[in-house]
Amino acid sequence: MSSDVKPTEVLDxxxxxxxxxxxxxxxxxxxxxxxxxxxxxxxYPLSAExxxxxxxxxxxxxxxxxxxxxxxxxxxxxxx
Amino acid sequence: MIETSLMVSGLVVGIVFGFVLQRGRFCMNSAFRDVxxxxxxxxxxxxxxxxxxxxxxxxxxxxxxxxxxYPKTLYWGAMIVGGFIFGIGMVLAAGCASGTTYRVGEGMMxxxxxxxxxxxxxxxxxxxxxxxxxxxxxxxxxALKAITTDNPGSLVGNANLTLANVISLDPWILVVIIAIVIxxxxxxxxxxxxxxxxxxxYERIFKMGWNWWVTxxxxxxxxxxxxxxxxxxALGISxxxxxxxxxxxxxxxxELNWFAFLVIGVVIGAAIAANIAGEFKLRAPDARxxxxxxxxxxxxxxxxxxxxxxxxGHILSGIPQLALSSMLGxxxxxxxxxxxxxxxxxxx
Lengths: 80, 348
Prior knowledge:
Chain A is an alpha+beta fold.
């Protein structure tokens, strides 16, 4: 996968506490169509690991998990 | 004032505990809540493994005479009410007592606010406006005791109840059975996390989040070391914060107990781990969430004092001693967590 996949939507949940980053990502993903790409910005370490895990379990494709800065991550998900 | 050696051991064990908590992202609120919310069992497996490691370790140390087990007093009402209240609080606070404490070390201001709530809630319940409720639910005469001579290395005579007392079995038989059952389930349900991408040993310890089984074993070992160092009990979090605030209010250094040094160590250890991993960041949610976390902390503090312990004192340290009080308290912490998580996140 090339590094410049253009996300259909961006969800910024930085600052949010457990489990809101996961819950909000889940809600967003449910509203999106197959093949669309969601970019999630998160600064909560547990969610940075748990979101990719749960997305893969649900069959979505996790294109990338980048550490973009101190305590910040960018997760790129392609909807099933 | 406690002995200097105990201050040092509390601080050192706390730093190691905080490091492990941060690396393993070990939070019981997440562990229990995620079971119903996301069908996620990763942290729950770490909790279960830590309990098994400690159960074997505690009983071994007690049998060898290094420690005396100390199952907490069983007050039915207090365990049920306090546990349930604590469970509600930890969902609102977005972290259990230990989760909240280690996240303060990560720079999460919401957890810092929750921690202030926890301390205030605990102190008003132990010695302030709510102390009568506590006394009502913890009657001096009401506790069920067992006349026992067979707890290995434990209190002999009029002791607090363990599961072994109730069903009149040698604790070791129970320890072996419970350990085999839990380990079998864990091996069966181990999942694919262990195939997590490589990296050098340094990176895997200091940079990446740990696999659940590494976390579980590490927490278990820290708990055993804590019991050996402190002698009176194993790990505890909320009691340390209450003691800390009590010492500040009264100006009496005698209020500081071993756990007070432990919890300060946890914050330091988590901050060290987060800094090395590049995960330390001062951050805060919006005002509404901060208020929610403060109220959650307050409720947790009230629940911890009524129920005589938090998730760490009961689930991590009490259940491995087979304490009936901690099993009951633990069950109701989980129920409070589930009911609240359902109401907050799963309706509609």
